[in-house]
Amino acid sequence: MDFRSLGRILGILVTIFSVTMIPPALVSLYFKDGDGLAFTLAFFICLVIGLAFWLPNRKAKADLKAREGFLIVVLFWTVLGAVGAVPFLISQSVDMSAADAFFESFSGLTTTGATVLSGLDELPKALLFYRQQLQWFGGMGIIVLAVAILPLLGVGGMQLYRAETPGPVKDSKMTPRIADTAQYLWYIYLSLTVACGVAYYLAGMSWFDAICHSFSTIAIGGFSTHDASMGYFDSPAINLICVVFLLISGVNFALHHAFVVTRSLGMYWRDPELRGFLLIQATLVLTCFLVLLGDQVYSAVGTTLDQALFQAVSISTTAGFATTDFAAWPLFLPILLMFSSFIGGCAGSTGGGIKVIRVLLMNLQGMRELKRLVHPKAIYSIRLGRKPVSERVMDAVWGFFAAYALVFVVIMLALMSTGMEEITAFSATVATLNNLGPGLGEVALHYGEIPDASKWLLIIAMLFGRLEIFTLLVLLTPTFWRN
Amino acid sequence: MDFRSLGRILGILVTIFSVTMIPPALVSLYFKDGDGLAFTLAFFICLVIGLAFWLPNRKAKADLKAREGFLIVVLFWTVLGAVGAVPFLISQSVDMSAADAFFESFSGLTTTGATVLSGLDELPKALLFYRQQLQWFGGMGIIVLAVAILPLLGVGGMQLYRAETPGPVKDSKMTPRIADTAQYLWYIYLSLTVACGVAYYLAGMSWFDAICHSFSTIAIGGFSTHDASMGYFDSPAINLICVVFLLISGVNFALHHAFVVTRSLGMYWRDPELRGFLLIQATLVLTCFLVLLGDQVYSAVGTTLDQALFQAVSISTTAGFATTDFAAWPLFLPILLMFSSFIGGCAGSTGGGIKVIRVLLMNLQGMRELKRLVHPKAIYSIRLGRKPVSERVMDAVWGFFAAYALVFVVIMLALMSTGMEEITAFSATVATLNNLGPGLGEVALHYGEIPDASKWLLIIAMLFGRLEIFTLLVLLTPTFWRN
Ligand SMILES: [K+]
Ligand SMILES: [K+]
């Protein structure tokens, strides 16, 4: 391991990150909410930490290998998550323990959107803005990670799959120009955010709320500036805007990238993952709609459709915005939607979960096994769209799935061993591992009341989910550290 | 499909099955419990049904293909499960709905051991004996199915795995002589039952209880003649006997078969699945022991060890016998043990669950994926013991795992949609799909109070579990029915 190079890269990251303390400080100045000093202080603290890593190692430039790549990715999220907790720790307007501050920061940066805070409406605007901004940068980080970096590291089988895919999204073409790709992705991400913010504003949000919620919408983050989340606005128009932009953000950004390059809309429709994604969303919305209608949960059909559409998309894309307390729906639906968050968004989107493409591939193999039983001698290849998928990709997908299930069970049992009640432990694990946000039971509204030990466990779950399990798991193997 | 041949085989099966009504009738005669007429009547009903299928088709002998094989296996369990419900329906001593009677019968025959009955201690001895006997025949059926028939059908990857395995358990050698193998297995099964029954008797059970519990122990069934299950006897010696025979019955009977043929004990120890099985058991017992000790659930260390050993083995092998109300343990432990029942016994044993060997194989592949991340160019093959495992086997194992998870989620959601509370729905699905028996929440003691619709769903779960998912699932595909 080349630790000096690692130190240099981390130093640069933290130094750049310190700059993100300035916008909240300006917000504080504008609203005179009293938190300006905290953010100015946080800026200097982060700057000093960053420079302390950077300057001594500034000349350490080495070619980094795959192993250093894993370390950098993990350190990127853990160090920024830790540094991001600074404002929560030093702000006078909230009283947060270390566990609380780290939880909120990691939850923001991983776009999980689980919060330990309540009484959001009374908090300083600067702090609210900062939380939303954490999600926004986190979302951008995810896309660059998923589209440009993880493929190079070979995590989760997607790199192999795409390397075999003909067309403009081919990684082998992207490889030599991560920076280029990242810049494109950044423009797309920014444009979507602006469009979303303008739409929210036109639909009636204040400009502050519009900006804040556009951040957490495009990042599929789910943080809000109100305790009632999107329910605060009580507006079907705003709900609909949110749904549309969640669906756009749930698509593979490599597809958006290819669209910007080629200007061909047809490629969206030809993408099997996107079609699967939309089919899943439609099925969930319809199921919720029919059950709510049958149980007469809402008096008007329009309200039923609005709520079914919004909640189904919000939970299954792993955004986790709420309107009504959806935990109060007939229990079948919340659990169904919690399970749907295991599927989550498309690979290369800001959504969490296992990702649609992996679920599609596993489904195809299941079908193949059934066919093989009837015709044992026949040869069936797995094809997505028209492209055959190699055994190597399937190996990686299955390994991912099994590791995901294992991490889920271990974290849930660990939570229960701290004495947490079942439905709370179950839903908290689902909500953090899938980077969803809100749970059920004691964590339906916020995570403020659970013990600190549970919060640390959930932080680990968020990281596992966001880093596609293996990026983190590989650091725990002896092979990784052996020369 | 050759439906006349199917009719003939089913007719023979039901006719033979009708004979199993005679031992309970004799038990009734001995104890004068008043249920003799019911079993005599049940005998004639089954006999008439059986002959009605057999006689018109008695000349229809055709070579059966794999597809007819699937149908026969599924019909075997469903038809015998249905016919087995007859005594429950006509007995005057219990008042059972159709759902209750089918539930009890399928639960017995699939060796699940979930019961809708309470007040067992007051029931006629004949009916109690009949329930235990159902499990015993079911257990025998499972072993023949798993060791001799499913491999021919290619379900779940084990046939392929064993076909590649050198040694005396090779399926290709067994294939031409199912009847021979079945006879050997029958002797082993009977001997173990006699040994277990004698041990129980010597440890203080009445001869009736000893026979009844030897039936449900070797079948890893879990039915008892007392509401308090094994707790009724309150005897560490009996608990220990139960544990020993559960562990023996949790081993692949093909290994026992090979031992009888070769008389070499070493082959047990060289079997990687058996080693994995024992390691899992030891870990679970130790975990339960330490947690119970730490929480001071029992005052004496001896009692703690006795209870930890008994409950851990009983639940994780999917027997489901209880002593104390283990649902009252610190919640972490019951949930841990419920999850361990997903692993279950070894393939080819009377235990349920996914089976140790599949879990081992998935674990090996997970490890390989981690190593591949660090050294992407290296070639790693999956080896169990010293034998490489082919991609084809891994495909089947992963397909099995995914289908298992899917069936689990669908049945659990379906239960919740009938209004069942979460922990009850979760544990009931675990307990039936893994052929375990007792659940938590409302089904911790028995399944009598849940709605009929839920009972039918759970019957389907038992069948899915016992028939290794794919045997049943394949019948739902169009490919199967196409010519
Ligand atoms: K989220
Ligand atoms: K059982």
Automatic annotation (TrEMBL), chains A, B:
Query: Subcellular location, in the record's words?
Result: Cell inner membrane
> Which lineage ranks, top first, belong to the organism behind this chain?
Bacteria, Pseudomonadati, Pseudomonadota, Gammaproteobacteria, Alteromonadales
This protein's species is Neiella marina
Q: How does it sit in the membrane?
A: Multi-pass membrane protein
| Entry superkingdom | Bacteria
Molecular function in Gene Ontology: metal ion binding; potassium:chloride symporter activity
Record's GO cellular component terms: plasma membrane
Q: Which UniProt keywords apply?
A: Cell inner membrane, Cell membrane, Ion transport, Membrane, Metal-binding, Potassium, Potassium transport, Transmembrane, Transmembrane helix, Transport
Q: Carries keyword Ion transport?
A: yes
Can you name this protein?
Trk system potassium uptake protein
Q: Ion transport among the record's keywords?
A: yes
Q: Which gene encodes it?
A: trkH
